[in-house]
Amino acid sequence: ASGTRRDLISILMGQIGNPARMISRPNNRGYTFLEIALALGIIAVVFVAVLPVVSASNQERRLRGVLDDVTQCVRELRLEAERTGTEQLLILQKSQMIERDGPHETGKVSWPQGISVSVKYPQGKWEPAEGQPWRVFSIGMIAPLSLRLKEGKAWLEADFDFLTGSVAEERY
User: Fold this and answer.
1) Is pTM, for the whole model, over 0.90?
2) Bridge partners of 100?
3) pLDDT tens figures, 49-96
4) CB-based contact 81:92 (threshold 8 Å)
């Protein structure tokens, strides 16, 4: 009798104690429409939440690329001015930056479409790039200048070191 009781208790405990048996599925192995809809809804919410972050990141990456191009150009021009002993000039325009050696145009850096450029001299105000000169002196020093690159809501400001031509400080 005690063996029967133990068998009955173990059978009941096995069925009651096992959660998989309490929430058992029918034998079909597919997902219900509700489960699929819920999974797709969660994926859509995550996608909508991440999209602005990825978009801003792409804009910042483009701005960083333009700043790197400007920095490289300024540093090369600084070395050229120092090597030749002649003043070099960069003209900052709305769509590009033009290198000049006297009256001769020696190179360009074009801004990608959609990027606006502003210029600020020390103690001055931000102005759109409209032909402002940026001097690189024959002793290798550059005129102090700050650039602001903007695309959409993303922006990047850089102050250039007058001794090295490198970015001294960035703000974004």
Assistant:
1) no
2) 89, 105
3) 877 766 667 888 889 999 999 999 888 888 888 898 988 889 999 888
4) no
